[in-house]
Amino acid sequence: MLALLHRDLLLAARRPADALGPLVFFALVTCLFPLAIGPDPALLAVLGPGVIWVAALLAMLLSQYRLFEADLADGSLEQAVLAPGGALAVVAAKTLTHWLSTGAPLVVAAPLLALQYDLAPTATGVLALALLIGTPALSLLGAFGAALTLGLRGHVLLALIVLPLCVPTLIFGSGATTAAQQGLAVGPQLSLLGAALLVSLVTLPWATAAALRLAVE
Amino acid sequence: MAHRERGDLDGRADTEAPDAPDAPRRALRVERLGCARGGRWLFRNLSFELHTGQALALRGPNGSGKSSLLRQLAGLLPREHGVVEGAAPASLAYLAHQNGLSLDLSARENLALATRIGGHALSPAALETALEEVGLRQAAAMPARRLSQGQRRRLALARVRASARPLWLLDEPTAALDGDGEQVFARLLTAHLEAGGLAVVATHQPLALPLPRCIALTLGPASSRPASSRPDPDIASATAVSAMESAP
């Protein structure tokens, strides 16, 4: 598992464009909305949390459809599935690497981009915290979709499978930020977001591993 | 679903008892194994045994199920029909058509990480020796992307060699290899068998084994040459250990 993680991190470092792409996409999309909507601080503050969350969601998915593709093509996926750790270790290493290279930069960049939406400092803090809890769940969901659609042509199916499953994370994540913006308690929303992450964590890796084993058959 | 029968399946094996003084240990047993792909049988009722120090040369025309058999033995394809004993994931090393190399990593990194992932990390010195053995010392720092197909195959063989697993499952191991590479492969395989290992090798070329350790199994229609008439010097005597059933 550690060796797999080492390999995946090394590969991610060799292909920086794969990790930079989603971050640039995220920044661009969140910048486009204020330009399109116009300089109305009150409206932007209302829209901000939702826009940032949807942009983060799409940026995570954008980078995920080829999570296992290169490894399937060059045969290293087969080898890793046969290794002592099995498919579950592959899923763990890939998902963690994906979150570190894609999710974590989004968490760091989000407070900066939130400035455009005139979010209150507490709301910005809650936004970063909610993304910190929510993006790993999105990584797990995306990995599941990527494993299910592995070997298929076209990647629309991945979005169709994964986007509906992302709804709880999206609702609680942007809900927490909106609540903070309005001065309401954020505990319940963040707890539910954490619950969504935990449910993803205890169910999805096994389903993803099963899908991978089917894909290498 | 109607299975279109390939009634004239022909699987035979030629075998010679190993000349080891002690009784040979049965290490891999396959009994009545079948593989159906896309609604038809690739092979059925396939049975053979492999003892320590023996290699099985798997022959047959394209599409006769050589790769599928190897993948079944490796556990990548389900073994729905029949019994396989002695092919636990922890005891085998599998070399597929693809080499299993990450093209963005160097040859050395590929080998080091592949062995660590396989659970048998090499020391730096052992790593260099393994690369030297397959003639890749000079190219060790090159990304696998820049290696030729033959060099990639050598690197994949080095991984199998370094795995220290008793059962090797090799799918066209000499594909893309030059003459020297084939000799390297023959050396590795011989050393492996002499150390008591086993190998199942799908190949179109005669295995250049100087030892009477090789049995052959031919998959595919009877129109292909039967194994017993092959002039391979490495096949000494013929005994059919597997017979095919033609009808369900």
Question: How does this structure look, described?
Answer:
The complex is a heterodimer of chains A (217) and B (248). Chain A contains ten helices and no strands. Chain A has helices at 2-14, 16-37, 41-62, 69-74, 76-82, 86-114, 121-148, 156-165, 167-181, 187-215. In chain A, helix 3 (41-62) runs antiparallel to helix 6 and helix 9 (167-181) packs antiparallel against helix 10 (187-215). Chain B is an alpha/beta fold. Chain B has five helices and nine strands; from the N terminus they run ββββαββαααβαββ. Chain B has a six-stranded mixed beta sheet, sandwiched between helices. In chain B, helix 2 (107-117) runs parallel beside helix 4 (149-162) and helix 4 (149-162) runs parallel beside helix 5 (179-194). The interface between A and B is medium-sized, with 25 and 28 residues.
Short description:
The complex is a heterodimer of chains A (about 220) and B (about 250). With about 220 residues, chain A is mainly α.
Protein topology:
The complex is a heterodimer of chains A (217) and B (248).
Chain A: H1 2-14, H2 16-37, H3 41-62, H4 69-74, H5 76-82, H6 86-114, H7 121-148, H8 156-165, H9 167-181, H10 187-215
Chain B: E1 13-14, E2 26-37, E3 40-51, E4 55-59, H1 66-74, E5 81-85, E6 92-95, H2 107-117, H3 124-133, H4 149-162, E7 167-171, H5 179-194, E8 198-202, E9 214-218
Parallel strand pairs in B: 4-8, 4-9, 6-7, 7-8
Antiparallel strand pairs in B: 1-9, 2-3, 2-5
Helix pairs in contact in B: 2-4, 4-5
